[in-house]
Amino acid sequence: MKEVITEMERYAIANNVPIIEIDSIKFIMKYIRLNNVKNVLEIGSAIGYSAILMANATDNVEITTIEKDEKRYKEAVKNVNKCGLDKRIDIVFNDALEVNLAGHSYDLIFIDAAKGSYIKFFEKFCHYLNPGGVIITDNLKFHGLVNNKDSVNTKSLRGIVDKIEKYISFLNDNKDYITKFYDIGDGLSVSIKKNNEK
Ligand code: SAH
Ligand code: MG
Predict the structure, then answer these.
(1) Does residue 116's CB lie within 6 angstroms of at least one atom of ligand 1?
(2) pTM of the model
(3) Whose CA is nearest to atom 12 of ligand 1?
(4) Does any ligand 1 atom lie closer than 6 A to the CB of residue 96?
């Protein structure tokens, strides 16, 4: 297990796969433990690194994770099998915006895929949240570039940074959710649905 994790960290560096920062995954694992999270939906599996660590937070949490890149999906399947976690981690090979999850609901939804689609992911998947559930989003600092726009000099990067800023405004303006932002790793947010009952 530990060896597979170390191997994945090496693979990620060698192949430019953006895996979650240690402090961020520790925060999420602690959240899973303290809140007795039973199931997680992850948008963006990459090679399965964060899914495997989330599954390790407790001995019964179940993860559904979606990845649209075939090479990464296959790598994730391989890693999950190596860890013997195939019973608790379900990897879906598809574009998250195309997936139909009717009939399913989750205690925690972790958004960590294309930064430019964060608002779309939130709007689609918030309907699958259990009462009391939360949506956690990663990379809100986007490697420190959000709030430091002068250092962003390519058009495509600036586009992503703009979209992350729009997502942050979207969260702040969202009347149905209360969002807290954490300066952990590459920046995390935790959005909790307000209790609308009187
Ligand atoms: N959660 C992973 C890292 C994910 S990196 C970890 O921390 O270990 C983001 C991944 O999201 C990439 O592998 C990318 O292929 C995938 N992705 C981007 N847009 C997507 C979409 N619309 N649907 C599914 N996966 C997507
Ligand atoms: Mg991330």
Answers:
(1) no
(2) 0.96
(3) 46
(4) yes
Residue among 19, 47, 68, 143 whose CB has most ligand 1 atoms within 8 A, to mutate: 68
- Name, in order, each residue with C-beta under 8 angstroms of 188's C-beta and a sequence gap of 6 or more: 24, 27, 28, 136, 137, 138, 140, 181, 182
pLDDT digits (tens, 9 = 90+) for 141-196: 987 778 777 777 788 888 889 999 999 999 999 999 999 999 999 999 999 999 76
Compute the distance from residue 46 Cα to the ligand 2 centre, in Å: 9
Q: Which helix (H) or strand (E) holds 109?
A: strand 106-111
- Over residues 68-117, the pLDDT tens digits come to 999 999 999 999 999 999 999 999 999 999 999 999 999 999 999 999 99
Amino acid at 194: K
Question: CA 163 to CA 40: how far, in whole Å?
Answer: 25
Q: How far apart are CA 135 and CA 153, in angstroms?
A: 31
Q: Is the CB of 97 under 6 A from ligand 1?
A: yes
Q: Which two tokens stand for residue 43?
A: 């948008």
Task: Name beta bridge partners: 181.
Answer: 189
d(CA 64, CA 19): 17
Which residue minimizes the CA distance to atom 15 of ligand 1? 69
